[in-house]
Amino acid sequence: MRIKDVELRIIQLPLVRPFRTSFGTQLERELLLMKITTHEGSQGWAECVAMSEPLYSPEYTMGAQDVMERFLLPKIFAYDDVRAEEVADILKPFLGHQMSKAAVETAILDAQLKLEGISFGSYLGSSKSEIDCGVSVGIASSIEALVAEVGLYIYEGYRRIKLKIEPGWDIEPVRIIREIWPDIPLQVDANQAYSRDDTELLKKLDQFNLLLIEQPLDEHDLLGHVLLAKEVRTPICLDESITSLESARDALAMKATTVINIKPGRVGGYLESVRIHDLCVENNIPVWCGGMLETGIGRAANIALASLPGFTLPGDTSASSRYFRRDITPPFIMNDGQLDVPTGPGIGVEIDHDFIEEITTSRKVISAP
Ligand code: OSB
Ligand code: MG
Question: Which of 4, 26, 51, 256 could, after both became Cys, cross-link 225 (CB 3.0–4.6 A)?
Answer without folding.
Answer: 256
